[in-house]
Amino acid sequence: MNNTHHMSKKIEVCLTPALIGLYDIEESIVVVIDILRATSSITYGIDNGAEAIIPVANVEDCLNYRDSGFLLAAERNGEVVTGYDFGNSPFSYTKEKVGGKTVVLTTTNGTKALHLAQKRAYQVVVGSFLNLDSLCSYLKSEDKNVLLLCAGWKDQFNLEDTLFAGAVVNKLRQNFEHFDDSSVAAEDLYLLAKDDLRKYLHKSSHSHRLAQLNIEEDVVFCLQLNVCEAIPVLEGERLVALKK
């Protein structure tokens, strides 16, 4: 009668890392979501053959890796930190640049969320629109609860991460129960926005910041569906491709 057990899997949405302490995640797969742009860039980089991506908390931590021949990537407030190879743009994570390489990455929101999840979760994986189907197939196949952790913006709620969480809830609702209200809200938001995600995101506060940073190309890229198969998974300190 394994089936009854199977159907009691739950899926929840944590709308900001500030709320992570409220969730029991010891038996959950936590999906870290930072759509603009860390988890999109990480997914794209791993899909393009990066050997590993190491998320670190501080810009200074990146420098400890300087001599190991790794690529160093640092973003703060949307911009590449001076003196680093690159930042958070998915266009920096092409096969030519990252194939076979290890990247050490620090970002404003995404790397923090990864570390918070890692402390307690059964497993931590990375999600983005780029690997939506691949991610959902994996979550469906595992007999684990799922927590979708939105990286937000400096611990505040944001629209793009919540929209993605809603897309996952929408794809998985047949396979999970025990939705929380934030899952319902995220899914409703996604259904409202899905026909034109970019247009919907013009409402977001982040969208004004991004306009000033002049990275519209990045935004459009990060909202593409299913251009990647890879699911990055945190193993120790490194994000590597999940072997399915």
Automatic annotation (TrEMBL):
Which InterPro entries does the entry mention?
ComB-like (IPR005238), ComB-like_sf (IPR036702)
Instruction: Identify the EC number(s).
Output: 3.1.3.71
Q: Which reaction does it catalyse?
A: (2R)-O-phospho-3-sulfolactate + H2O = (2R)-3-sulfolactate + phosphate
- Which first-to-last residue range defines the signal peptide? none
This protein's cofactor list reads:
Mg(2+)
Name the domain of life.
Bacteria
The first-level EC class reads: hydrolase
Pfam annotation, one family: 2-ph_phosp
Q: Which UniProt keywords apply?
A: Hydrolase, Magnesium
Query: What PANTHER family does this protein's entry cite?
Result: 2-PHOSPHOSULFOLACTATE PHOSPHATASE-RELATED
Q: Which HAMAP family match?
A: ComB
- State the family it belongs to: Belongs to the ComB family.
Protein name per its UniProtKB record: Probable 2-phosphosulfolactate phosphatase
